[in-house]
Amino acid sequence: xxxxxxxxxxxxxxxxxxxxxxxxxxxxxxxxxxxxxxxxxxxxxxxxxxxxxxxxxxxxxxxxxxxxxxxxxxxxxxxxxxxxxxxxxxxxxxxxxxxxxxxxxxxxxxxxxxxxxxxxxxxxxxxxxxxxxxxxxxxxxxxxxxxxxxxxxxxxxxxxxxxxxxxxxxxxxxxxxxxxxxxxxxxxxxxxxxxxxxxxxxxxxxxxxxxxxxxxxxxxxxxxxxxxxxxxxxxxxxxxxxxxxxxxxxxxxxxxxxxxxxxxxxxxxxxxxx
Length: 274
What we know:
Layout (H helix, E strand, L loop, with lengths): L2 H6 L5 E5 L4 H12 L3 E6 L2 H18 L4 E6 L5 H14 L5 E4 L15 H28 L6 E6 L13 H20 L5 E8 L8 H4 L2 H9 L9 H12 L10 E4 L14
Parallel strand pairs: 1-2, 1-4, 2-3, 4-5, 5-6, 6-7
Helix pairs in contact: 2-3, 2-9, 4-5, 5-6
């Protein structure tokens, strides 16, 4: 076994990725399958999940990857949706090694026009649904947990939850700050159960959520020019974070917020004395 396999292989691991059919969720699902995990992909649009799973299984077959994927519908925007998704997962596996809480939504409007309903809708998915699904799946996570190999929960936050960036997405930014804090709290409270809780805080990546700013090469170049590392994120940037936090190499990390943002979270504007 090579050191790469020893530290980052996920062969035989079971995983759930919410919102795993597109954008960053698809990048996560792809990385997990390539690393050998059996991945459940769930989102509001079951047909998209089924199609993505089929494509990932074909990729695995052609590349020799040992992972697999299965897709089905699941909506974390309501209590009933969370319960139905948890039931679906319980029917498909008796233990869960990895949970990626990736499903999310946003709303954009100027500060003076930002509507009341933009808060409940966003927080229901990004915070309440994330917490309650994790709560429902704790027995499955505990079933696979061991001190030598803890179960992993990885929440998808955002650079907007770490830096003072509103950009018209006030409830989204606040929700991601809440995700970061919940990650730290649960990492502390459930460490004794051998379950790690970490978050990835991405900067700009191509996705449906960011299509307004990344759907052309010109826009991608413009957004990238505002990032300290002068580009937007790529799938391999997410894959590296996924394998680190979920593989044996990340077993001693919990309560961490991992920035994958090209340096945006430490940017404070122009140099004071430039």
